[in-house]
Amino acid sequence: MEQPPRSPLEQLISTPQFVLGITQGMLVTLITASYYWWTLSNGYTAEVARILAFIVLVTANATLIFPSRTAQTGWREMFTGLSSVGAFVLGGTMLGLILITSVPVIAEAFTFRPPSVPQWLLAFSIGIAMIFLFEAAKVVLHRRN
């Protein structure tokens, strides 16, 4: 709100921003689908495999808030100046994720079966760890431009 309005002739999103968004989305899809496949191939029930993939997907997408807030690369820039709205979105997302994945009545509405705590924590950690891939994609694409 501190900047003047964008010119009507200016692109809403630049080509590098578009490519970065597509790349990060593909990373989320690849990791989530791979983890889902891994859980099924290791004997997890479909209901548990689905909920674990859901945890990875939601956590990874929530984690995307940090590298997407600035075009600059670097960890300090990523974690400084989180707005109250951003914090509210992250908190609400995590609360919703915990409720949907931990309360059996709610999980059943999504045809999920709540996982064990170690399973939940592993899926959550995979989603959080995606921040390294998101930042790496930003660094690689930034160097190309």
List keywords for this structure.
about 140 residues; mainly alpha
Total count of domains:
1
Gross morphology: globular
Strand content: under 5%
Low-confidence parts, pLDDT < 50 over ≥5 residues? none
Question: What is the element string, with H for helices and E for strands?
Answer: HHHHHHH
Structural class: mainly alpha
Q: What Rg do the Cα atoms give? A: 18 Å
Q: Classify the helix fraction into a percent range.
A: over 70%
Instruction: Please count the helical segments.
Output: 7
Mean pLDDT: 87
Amino-to-carboxy terminus distance: 27 Å
What's the number of extended β-strand segments? Answer: 0
Q: For the report, how would you describe the main beta sheet?
A: none
Secondary structure elements and pairings:
Blueprint: H1 15-41, H2 46-63, H3 65-68, H4 75-79, H5 84-102, H6 104-109, H7 117-144
What does this structure look like?
This protein has one domain (15-144). 74% of the residues lie in helices and 0% in strands. It is built from seven helices and no strands. The mean pLDDT is 87.
Short recap of the structure:
With 145 residues, this protein is an all-alpha fold.
